[in-house]
Specification:
- It is built from 3 helices and 5 strands.
- The chain has 139 residues and is an alpha+beta fold.
- It has one domain.
- Strands 1-2-3-4-5 form a 5-stranded antiparallel beta sheet.
- The radius of gyration is 19 Å and the shape is globular.
């Protein structure tokens, strides 16, 4: 099938629109991570190698998992309760900072076009419990 100039132009427009669909999410993540790193003097380990997952926040942030995260978000100046029941993205970055000898992750939470929280956790192989800290501290 031979592409006519008009068909080629239409395909080009559609393709460029589709390829840019995820760019906004990446730009939001980049803005959030840059802001948090600059504001709190944090440093990514290597190239950062972020891992992103999506979840829906529960209607009540009272369980051991999200209740604790809501508290540390509040300590960092964020209000996670404003996003209950909504779909969010959680992106995990390896950072070089440590807390009591334990290596840490930095988590950036976003909702659509907003950075809604940042906090730190110890890595999987840690024995520290619960190991979730406000972005500006680890105690």
């Amino acid at each position: 099938m031979k592409l006519t100039p008009l068909l080629y132009l239409i395909l080009l427009i559609v393709a460029s629109f589709c390829f840019s669909c995820g760019d906004d999410d990446n730009a939001i993540q980049e803005d959030c991570i840059s802001e948090v790193i600059n504001n709190y003097g944090l440093h990514l380990e290597g190239d950062g190698d972020p891992v992103t997952e999506e979840t829906t926040l529960p209607d009540q942030l009272t369980d051991a998992n999200w209740g604790l995260k809501a508290i540390v978000c509040e300590q960092g100046g964020y209000d996670l309760n404003a996003y209950t029941g909504q779909r969010i993205s959680l992106t995990k970055y390896r950072i070089i900072e440590i807390c009591d000898g334990e290596p840490l992750y930095l988590w950036i939470l976003t909702n659509e076009d907003e950075c809604i929280c940042a906090y730190k956790t110890v890595r999987e192989d840690s024995s520290a419990a619960p190991g979730v800290f406000a972005v500006e501290g680890c105690d």
